[in-house]
Design a protein that fits this description.
Blueprint: H1 3-27, H2 53-56, H3 75-82, H4 112-119
Length: about 130
C-alpha cells in the first residue's frame, strides 16, 4: 500500500479516537455521585432498616444450644410401635406409561448397506499427501 494512503488512514483513526474522547467528556456527569444519590444533587436515600454487619454475625456464645441426642428406645417400646397398623400408601395419581414398542429387526436376507459397500470400488491409486 502506498505510504500516502497509510497516512490518511492513520489521520482518520486519530480523529476518531480524539472525537470519541471528547464526546465521552461531554456526556459524563459534572459531578460523580454514589448509588442511590439523586442526579440533581439532592440528598442520598435514607435506609430506614439499615443495621451494621456486626449485628448480623452471631458469635458462638449467641448461638442457641443444640439439643442433645435422645437415648435409644428399649426393645419393648419398639415392639409396641411395630404392632401399630400400617396404612396402605395412596394410589398414584398418574398412571405409569405403557411399555415402549421396539421395532422388529429386518430379515437377514435384506442387507442394503452391505450391497452399497460392495458396489463401491476403491480408487486405483492413493493421492499424494
Amino acid at each position: 500500500m502506498p505510504r500516502s494512503v497509510l497516512r490518511v488512514v492513520a489521520v482518520i483513526l486519530a480523529l476518531c479516537a480524539v472525537g470519541g474522547f471528547v464526546l465521552g467528556l461531554r456526556g459524563a456527569p459534572e459531578r460523580a455521585r454514589l448509588p442511590g444519590e439523586a442526579p440533581g444533587g439532592g440528598a442520598a436515600l435514607q435506609a430506614s432498616e439499615a443495621r451494621p454487619l456486626d449485628d448480623l454475625v452471631l458469635t458462638p456464645s449467641e448461638l442457641p444450644p443444640q439439643e442433645e441426642p435422645k437415648p435409644e428406645e428399649k426393645p419393648e417400646e419398639k415392639t409396641e410401635e411395630a404392632a401399630a397398623p400400617v396404612e396402605k400408601p395412596p394410589e398414584p395419581l398418574v398412571k405409569p406409561a405403557p411399555a415402549l414398542k421396539t421395532p422388529a429387526p429386518p430379515p437377514a436376507d435384506e442387507d442394503r448397506v452391505g450391497d452399497l459397500i460392495d458396489g463401491l470400488t476403491p480408487p486405483a491409486e492413493q493421492p499424494p499427501y
